[in-house]
Automatic annotation (TrEMBL):
Stored PANTHER family: DIHYDRONEOPTERIN ALDOLASE 1-RELATED
Catalytic activity from the UniProt record: 7,8-dihydroneopterin = 6-hydroxymethyl-7,8-dihydropterin + glycolaldehyde
InterPro entries for this protein: Dihydroneopterin_aldolase, FolB_dom, GTP-CH-I_C/QueF
Role according to the record: Catalyzes the conversion of 7,8-dihydroneopterin to 6-hydroxymethyl-7,8-dihydropterin.
UniProt feature coiled coil, ranges: none
Name of the molecule in the record: 7,8-dihydroneopterin aldolase
Family: Belongs to the DHNA family.
Species per Swiss-Prot/TrEMBL record: Nocardioides aquaticus
Lineage start: Bacteria, Bacillati, Actinomycetota, Actinomycetes, Propionibacteriales
Length: 124
């Protein structure tokens, strides 16, 4: 069953060393992450209790750490890692993750490179 509610955290900026090229790994670059999380907020709304919802401050810090650590070649791998962090929170039923790589090494003029994935908790 899909969650009736969505929580968005957008524009989470991180400096990290992901990429295929040596200079990306050496120098690093900016990554921007957008999250949309499916969850049921009715209990939290009724109780006004943070423990009955997703703490987006804690989750944002966990995503930030996941982006900054352990460099990988592909934004596909990074997006999956972020989705796994989001789904580790028991209140998140599904996660839509967009990883922006605005400084990607393209030889043409562009404004952004972005990958969006959606992952669901097992059985959802």
């Amino acid at each position: 069953m899909s969650a009736p509610d969505e929580l968005a955290v957008t524009g989470l900026e991180c400096w990290a060393h992901h990429g295929v090229f040596d200079h990306e790994r050496r120098d690093g670059q900016r990554f921007v992450v957008d999250l949309v999380l499916g969850l049921d907020t009715r209990e939290a709304a009724a109780s006004d209790d943070l423990h009955r919802t997703v703490d987006y401050g804690t989750l944002g810090a966990a995503v930030h750490a996941a982006v900054q650590n352990d460099p990988v070649d592909l934004i596909e791998t990074l997006a999956q890692r972020i989705a796994d962090v989001c789904l580790a929170d028991g209140g998140v039923q599904w996660a839509r993750v967009t990883v922006h790589k605005p400084d990607a090494p393209l030889q043409v003029t562009f404004s952004d490179v972005a990958l969006t994935i959606t992952r669901r908790r097992e059985g959802q």
